Amino acid sequence: MTYREAPASDGVRSIGAGESRAGVRALRWSRGGTIASGLLRGFTLVELMVVVVIIGIMATVVTVSVTDYLVTAKQNVARSEIATIKNALALFFMETDRYPTNDEGLGALKKGTPQHPNGILASDTRDPWNREYVYLHPGAHGPYEVMSLGADGQEGGTGQNADILSWELEGSRP
Fold first, then answer.
1. 126 forms bridges with which residues in the sheet?
2. What's the pLDDT tens digit per position in 41-54?
3. Sheet with 164-165, side-by-side order of all strands
């Protein structure tokens, strides 16, 4: 059976047996001819709005998840840095038989000595929220305490605002 879409004068050939109508549509489209009604169908405004809403919901879920991971990552960095500071304080104590005073603070760990020309603690003493770690000597839970006040910079708090305390770390020892 043979179908004829349009007169042969507009450059469209007849469909022979075994040929598909899609091939003729592609031929017409590629030659820039007119397309008969109903051959191509676009998206409605409602369909496009549904897709935009779904993409917005997915972006919100991803953003919330990533934000939670960033908060957890900053808290883990603070824990790791406090553990490093604790090790530096232990070395300071072994070499001087005392802990730094409150007036000296953690800066005493960064001063050069004959044994440590670059200081015992080479890293910065600022927490991931760009505030100085709090150092107290003597501490309420041992000879000293090192703490980060969390995202809000205030004592106490929960979630991202929770304080990270040296004496609460696993395997904590003065």
1. 132
2. 788 999 999 999 99
3. 134-136, 145-148, 164-165
Domain range list for the chain: 79-168
Phi and psi of 144, rounded to 5°? -155, 165
According to DSSP, residue 166 is labeled G
pLDDT tens-digit readout, 81-130: 999 999 999 999 998 999 999 999 999 899 888 888 888 888 888 999 99
- Could you check whether the bond before residue 138 is cis, i.e. omega within 30 degrees of 0? yes
Query: Distance between CA 171 and CA 79 in Å, rounded?
Result: 12
The residues, ordered by sequence, that sit 6+ positions from 173 with a Cβ below 8 Å of its Cβ are 86
pTM (2 decimals)? 0.64
Each residue's pLDDT tens digit, 119-173:
888 888 899 999 999 999 988 888 999 999 988 988 888 888 889 998 888 665 5
> Domain 79-168 has what CATH class?
alpha beta
Quick one: DSSP state of residue 87?
A: H
- Measure the CA–CA gap between 172 and 174, rounded to whole angstroms: 7
Place of tokens 């080479």: 122
